[in-house]
């Protein structure tokens, strides 16, 4: 699936002037980092985790490790005035060590819906004393999700998708119920082909065939790492699927599709275009936070 090009300078690339008077921010969580930038506080961020990849200049900041395996020492070395955490950030011992060291920590709620996304925006905006910007951002997000819902096709049977994530060199992990992948499919007017379990599990050929998905969905980096589309679909767990034989594979940037930040409604719209085979689906309003450095 082709996404819209992300060009030019986003609203969130704040100048040093915008960051004056703000605490030194360290952020863990790609979606939370996007919220900070959309609130105009990019200039205050002095460090981020490895999932904070957009806007792309965040990749040049000092790194504090992976979201679920943060380095307490790395955070402390940046002398943060505030550490903003996604709900999933950890591990707990590292967070406890940082609290004991006196680091001011605010953890956002779990984001799995438009409502919880807007709750997270409110939490971050209040932490940054940018309540008015937070209200404006939430108003725009509410408009985007309403436009998305109004534009979606309503077939009698929604398209189903086998949503896969990488698992090193092992079998791909397939989403079941209660995941961010299932939430994104639901926003796109589709459904997860697997409903028999919660979370992610290694997929087998038998389970994939029983799920009988209309589409296979996977991150672009996972498909690339397997050697490309043909190699990915030729895996023994997938090769017998009618969807795989027909080449019905949707690929995406993982942060764009699963980050649950301000771009989520647009990502769901792009996913819906592919899964419903509707290139004529109405575009959502253009927003400054959709555009990042090339």
From TrEMBL:
InterPro entries: ABC_Transporter_SBP, ABC_transptr_periplasmic_BD. It holds the Pfam family Peripla_BP_2. This is Iron complex transport system substrate-binding protein. Gene3D superfamilies: Nitrogenase molybdenum iron protein domain. It comes from the Bacteria. Keywords: Signal. Residues 24-279 form the Fe/B12 periplasmic-binding domain. It comes from Roseococcus suduntuyensis.
């Amino acid at each position: 699936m082709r996404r819209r090009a992300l060009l030019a300078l986003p609203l969130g690339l704040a100048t040093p002037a915008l960051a004056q008077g703000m605490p030194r921010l360290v952020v863990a969580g790609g979606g939370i980092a996007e919220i900070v930038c959309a609130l105009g506080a990019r200039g205050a961020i002095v460090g981020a985790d490895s999932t904070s990849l957009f806007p792309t200049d965040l990749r040049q900041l000092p790194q504090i490790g992976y979201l679920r395996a943060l380095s307490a020492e790395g955070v402390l070395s940046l002398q943060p005035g505030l550490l903003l955490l996604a709900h999933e950030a950890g591990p707990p011992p590292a967070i406890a060590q940082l609290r004991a060291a006196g680091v001011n920590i605010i953890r956002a709620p779990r984001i799995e819906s438009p409502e919880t996304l807007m709750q997270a925006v409110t939490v971050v905006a209040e932490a940054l004393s940018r309540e008015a910007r937070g209200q404006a951002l939430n108003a725009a997000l509410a408009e985007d999700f309403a436009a998305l819902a109004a534009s979606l096709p309503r077939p009698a049977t929604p398209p189903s998708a086998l949503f896969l994530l990488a698992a090193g060199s092992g079998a791909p992990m397939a989403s079941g119920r209660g995941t961010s992948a299932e939430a994104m499919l639901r926003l796109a007017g589709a459904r997860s082909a697997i409903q028999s379990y919660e979370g992610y599990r290694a997929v087998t050929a038998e389970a994939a065939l029983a799920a009988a998905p209309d589409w296979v969905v996977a991150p672009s980096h996972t498909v690339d790492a397997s050697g490309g589309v043909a190699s990915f679909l030729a895996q023994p767990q997938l090769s017998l699927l009618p969807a795989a034989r027909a080449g019905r594979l949707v690929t995406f940037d993982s942060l764009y599709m699963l980050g649950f930040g301000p771009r989520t409604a647009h990502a769901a719209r792009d996913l819906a275009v592919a899964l419903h085979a509707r290139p004529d689906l109405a575009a959502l309003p253009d927003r400054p936070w959709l555009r990042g450095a090339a």
